[in-house]
Write a structure and sequence with these properties.
The strands form three sheets. Strands 3, 4, 5, 6, 7, 8, 15 and 16 form an eight-stranded mixed β-sheet that branches. By secondary structure, the chain is of the alpha/beta class. It folds into two domains: 200 residues, Quinone Oxidoreductase, Chain A, domain 1, CATH 3.90.180.10; 125 residues, 3-Layer(aba) Sandwich (Rossmann fold), CATH 3.40.50. It has ten helices and 16 strands. The longest helix has 13 residues. The chain binds zinc ion (2 copies). One zinc ion binds next to loops.
């Protein structure tokens, strides 16, 4: 983890009233409220007042104990907010312009150094010194680390993307997980080639899958989306896909966004196809692989985890542009006050949960 500046080199920002963070202590325990009366901003750090956060499926998995996480922890990594303080030296948004107080922004889930071998190789989400919002234990100098809070303390090395005032918060909050990850998955599958007329098959109509459907359909692909849930299949049609319960023919690009259909995804790939695995973000049984079949079909099987800052900016560009044609605003089915985080989490974990449940701290 990046070394924090000595206290005297940090710019103290006092918050009145104090910021509040909802801290998760472990499986089965209610969130604790922690008041944070001030933060020390290092060079290039940014303090953001959160407008809305959405609860991602991985937050639910963590709280159910399906993923390990260091506690105490402020969960949440899908948010939109407004810049209220900037550390000494300032910083720039992803467009290269200086970031200003009052800017409405979304930000990358990872903090990256920009100089290690992984960062310079374009894998900034796997930076050797990386920290992740919503995934790190809170510490004495860095309490506001996640989205289930009134404010978040963004560290230097975070990609910050300015967003239009006109876009609904419900569209923007999931950008920093679902939409950007979907963008990265579609880009990996396309590998620089046009998607016009390509047969794209998406497994899983969760928000990553639905976002991938819209992104690929908008590029001219013929998208089929497979999901066992009738309501999600209906949603998928509105995002530009043809919904089905099983693959109906071979595909040029297969995106496995559920984590539960890896073998089916590989089986559905046509000769020369790319299979993008993006949904396997929780422990699962190993999947048998018919290597001969992969060889004979000239398949590319690739994994995508999170995204780069460039991909986040591109995903936001899509949401602000052609993505307006798709019902991204409708994915948030309920908004709870931050104070009711435990009820919100229960709603997000229900079997008939909407695609996203949101938390509003204001
Ligand atoms: Zn997520
Ligand atoms: Zn790095």
């Amino acid at each position: 983890m990046r070394t924090l500046l000595p206290h005297d080199e940090r710019q103290d920002v006092t918050l009145r009233p104090a910021a509040t963070a909802k801290v998760w202590l472990g499986v089965g325990q209610a969130h604790e409220t922690v008041a944070v009366p001030g933060v020390g901003l290092g060079h290039g750090d940014v303090l953001v007042a959160i407008e809305l956060s959405t609860i991602c499926g991985s937050d639910v998995h963590t709280m159910q104990g399906h993923r390990t996480a260091p506690t105490p922890l402020v969960l949440g990594h899908e948010s939109v907010g407004r810049v209220i303080a900037i550390g000494e030296g300032g910083t720039t948004s992803a467009d290269g312009e200086p970031l200003r107080i009052g800017d409405r922004v979304v930000w990358s889930v990872t903090v990256s150094c920009g100089t290690c071998d992984r960062c310079t190789a374009g894998m900034t989400q796997k930076c050797h010194t990386s920290a992740k919002y919503g995934h790190v234990r809170i510490g004495p100098r860095w309490e506001l680390t996640g989205g289930f809070a009134s404010h978040v303390h963004l560290r230097a090395g975070t990609t910050i993307v300015r967003v239009p005032e006109a876009l609904p918060a419900a569209v923007l909050a999931p950008a920093s997980c679902a939409t950007a990850t979907a963008w990265a998955a579609v880009a990996r599958g396309a590998d620089g080639r046009s998607l016009e007329g390509k047969r794209v098959l998406v497994y899983g109509a969760g928000l990553v899958g639905l976002s991938a459907v819209a992104i690929a359909a908008d590029e001219g692909a013929e998208v089929t989306v497979i999901d066992p849930s009738a309501s999600r299949r209906t949603f998928a049609e509105r995002f530009g896909g043809t919904a089905a319960v099983a693959a109906t023919g071979p595909a040029d690009i297969v995106i496995e966004a559920s984590g539960h259909a890896v073998a089916d995804a590989i089986a559905a790939a046509d000769v020369g196809a790319a299979v993008v695995l993006v949904g396997s973000v929780f422990p699962a049984e190993p999947v048998p692989l018919d290597a001969e079949s992969v060889v004979r079909r000239l398949l590319t099987v690739t994994g995508v985890h999170n995204y780069t800052g460039t991909e986040l900016a591109a995903a936001v560009g899509f949401l602000a542009g052609r993505g307006r044609a798709y019902p991204f605003a409708d994915v948030v089915g309920a908004v709870h006050p931050l104070e009711d985080v435990d009820a919100a989490v229960a709603a997000a974990a229900a079997s008939d949960a909407p695609l996203r449940v949101a938390l509003n701290p204001r």
